[in-house]
Amino acid sequence: MTLTLAPDTAPKQTAAPADAAFGASVGEELSERQQEVLDAVLKLMVAEGDGFSVAAVARAASCSKETLYKWFGDRDGLLTATVRWQASKVRMPKLPRDRLTSDSLKAALTGFATSWLTVITGDLSIALNRAAVSHAGSGKSRLGEIVLTNGPVAMARRLEPLLLAGRGAGLLNFDDAGEAFRAFFGLVIADTQIRVLLGETGRLDEHEISVRASAAADRFLALFG
After folding, report:
1. Which of 80, 146, 170, 215 has its CA 20 to 30 A from that of 130?
2. How far is the C-alpha of 169 from the C-alpha of 217, rounded, in Å?
3. With contact defined as beta carbons under 8 Å apart, do 76 and 67 qualify?
4. How far is CA 19 from CA 50, 64, 201, in A?
5. Closest by alpha carbon to 161, among 117, 219, 210, 112?
């Protein structure tokens, strides 16, 4: 998603947990047609924010409202599915079947960070996060809660098995996986999301993302290795 606000507090869960298996994606649970519908929702949010109606989604996706309700339930269900679909684009690299090494751990952390930065700095995630922030605390929309639960909280669940595997292999040293994730979050995201949400021009290109992701992994290993 990244769909990332603040990783400190996990609100009441609004959707099924993100798949914690290495390399798995929530998107694998969706049909190609359902993915097309959720992409249509994201494009609507880029154009209009989150003030769209189910009818507008139906028109944009050439899909009946009855089908949308059948697949996703109410509007909050549609928003939750959309956030989870966008967050699922952050890929968790598969780990080697044999014992984790310092090189494979760094490669996995770097790959995760690269995918994460790529997703959160894209137009779709920026629109999603701007909409969530605009309604935060207003009581007008549950989008902020949905983004928090299915963005950073889900990222923490997805990364936790890798962190625990690293500790089990003697490559990482930490008492609390949540604390370790928050440190990794800060190293990877830094002020990047704030800058893109505020409309800073000059988005990160592929090379810059790769450099930042590698540096974040190195710093994390220096802190917890």
Report:
1. 215
2. 17
3. no
4. 26, 29, 34
5. 112
What are the residues whose beta carbons fall under 8 Å from the beta carbon of 191, sequence distance 6 or more?
A: none
CA distances from 133 to 88, 171, 215 (A): 21, 37, 29
The token duo for 158 is 């997805």
Residue of 15, 164, 186 whose CA lies nearest to 88: 15
pLDDT tens sequence across 123-170 = 788 777 777 777 665 555 677 777 777 777 888 888 999 999 999 999
Cβ neighbours of residue 124 closer than 8 Å, sequence gap 6 or more: 42, 43, 45, 46, 86
Taken in order of first residue, the domains within the chain and their CATH numbers are: 26-88 (1.10.10.60), 90-225 (1.10.357.10)
| 205-212-93-91 Cα dihedral, nearest 10 degrees | -50
Q: Taking the model in full, what pTM does it have? A: 0.76
Q: Write the CA distances from 91 to 62, 156, 162, 170, 211, integer angstroms.
A: 29, 13, 13, 24, 18
Query: What is the number of helices (H) and of strands (E) in the chain?
Result: 11, 0
Q: Tell whether the model's pLDDT for residue 14 goes beyond 80.
A: no
Distance CA 144, CA 151 (A): 10
Question: Residue 62 burial (CB < 10 Å; 0-12/13-18/19+)?
Answer: exposed
| Separation of alpha carbons 103 and 53, rounded Å | 48
Residue type present at position 49: G
